[in-house]
Amino acid sequence: MRFRPEHYLEAAQEQICSARVLRNRRRYPAAIYLAGVSVECLLLAYRTREKPEFDSRHDLGSLLKESGIVEFIRPKDRRGLPVFLADVWTRWKNNYRFASSDRLTAEFKRLKLEEG
Question: What is the pTM of this model?
Answer without folding.
Answer: 0.77
